[in-house]
Amino acid sequence: xxxxxxxxxxxxxxxxxxxxxxxxxxxxxxxxxxxxxxxxxxxxxxxxxxxxxxxxxxxxxxxxxxxxxxxxxxxxxxx
Length: 79
Known about the structure:
Elements: E1 3-6, H1 14-25, E2 32-36, H2 41-52, E3 56-60, E4 66-70
Parallel strand pairs: 1-2
Antiparallel strand pairs: 2-4, 3-4
Helix pairs in contact: 1-2
């Protein structure tokens, strides 16, 4: 099960700070999905995922919202 964190409208560094705090509360077997409009979010969250040993993916919707997923720590690495 994934936790969804809606951070649309927030700018760097708040997206990273809030995502880091939520990730600390998230079960290692669960994914964290962050919705953000800040253009730097995918870069910052990819670094956070790397530090946490979690696979990462990011997609941009037609509405300019980034959907960044820090997958389960137990998920196989993305290629």
